[in-house]
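Weekly structure sync, notes
Attendees: PL (lead), two postdocs, one rotation student
Agenda item 3: pending single-chain targets
PL asked that the sequence for the first pending target be pasted directly into the notes so everyone works from the same version. It is reproduced below exactly as submitted, 117 residues in total.
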Amino acid sequence: PGRATWWAVLTSAPQLLAAAPAFLFCNLYAPLHPLCLGFAAGCMISVVIGEMIPEALETASSDDVASYTTLACGLFEGFRMTLDWAAHEPDHAGRVLAALAWSVVAGGATAGGGLVV
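Predicted structure, written out during the meeting:
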């Protein structure tokens, strides 16, 4: 674990150098953000469907995989909806707290699903 930690820190070091140019690049090409985010989302979905779910099916029953996949998707959609709701009326502190609570629930569901599967 110790060597892996240092390798993780070492491989993340170039991020410090690239942060400012990346910020400027993002501001310059802001109109392309929706396209790029859509592409990234498609890539993540293809990884989940093509690699993660088949790997989970090797060690867990299909009912468990389907249940936890559905639970995770539902919780993350609830989290997204709560953040969207809170963002439209930021002067309501209760809504922001609700968004934070959803993040805890979503993270817990993901961790629980990973432990079970």
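Discussion points:
- The longest helix spans residues 33-59.
- The two ends are 23 Å apart (CA to CA).
Action: rotation student to compare against the earlier draft before next sync.
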